[in-house]
Design goal:
62% helix
Length: 196
């Protein structure tokens, strides 16, 4: 790790998850015991300060999902049968988490959330209320939303991209969360450029 850290110093934060994604094919080929040890080590490192930040969540989520799906590829499907109308609660969680992550001002976050919500569900009112235990809520919501039909997944990702751009900038934590949502829905997206 000490040898690798200097090489990572010059990497733009927007490139962290794409870099991890490049390593996944090699990690998937390692023995399962090594994979489990890696995940356990990362879990322990993240737990040291007793808080889970967005970047840590994204790294762990991406790694755990990729390794689990490599072991059970038959469980992976690009699209399910559910429609967006049946996933309002899960959508509210994802929109709320991304709005909160991308806006320091609660009123701006609420505006971004409501704009995105109206795009997805124009006939259903919803208050902005991001979950307090956002990692657990987000995991549950993503599992449900992975069962969406392809058109629903595309609509959700387009709406999330608009939500992130609501304030005219896309922060690193927003881009990483969007990448994680896309990976969980099995709809990969290209790296977002810092200029975005």
């Amino acid at each position: 790790i000490r040898q690798l850290l200097p090489a990572l110093d010059g990497i733009h934060p927007m490139q962290r998850l794409p870099l991890l994604q490049l390593t996944l094919p090699q990690l998937k080929r390692r023995p399962i015991a090594e994979q489990e040890k890696l995940v356990a080590t990362l879990d322990a490192l993240v737990a040291l300060d007793r808080r889970l930040d967005i970047h840590e969540y994204c790294v762990l989520r991406l790694l755990k999902q990729a390794l689990a799906e490599a072991r059970e590829p038959e469980r992976v499907r690009a699209a399910g049968r559910m429609k967006l109308a049946a996933c309002m609660e899960a959508s509210a969680v994802v929109l709320g988490v991304l709005a909160a992550a991308g806006h320091e001002d609660r009123d701006q976050a609420r505006q971004a959330f409501l704009s995105a919500w109206t795009r997805l569900y124009p006939n259903a009112a919803r208050a902005y209320a991001p979950p307090s235990d956002w990692p657990r809520a987000l995991d549950g919501a993503l599992a449900e939303l992975d069962q969406l039909q392809l058109a629903g997944k595309e609509m959700l990702l387009e709406t999330l991209a608009e939500l992130l751009a609501h304030d005219g900038r896309i922060a690193v934590n927003e881009a990483e969360l969007l990448r994680i949502v896309a990976a969980a829905l099995h709809c990969p997206i290209p790296p977002l450029l810092p200029q975005a």
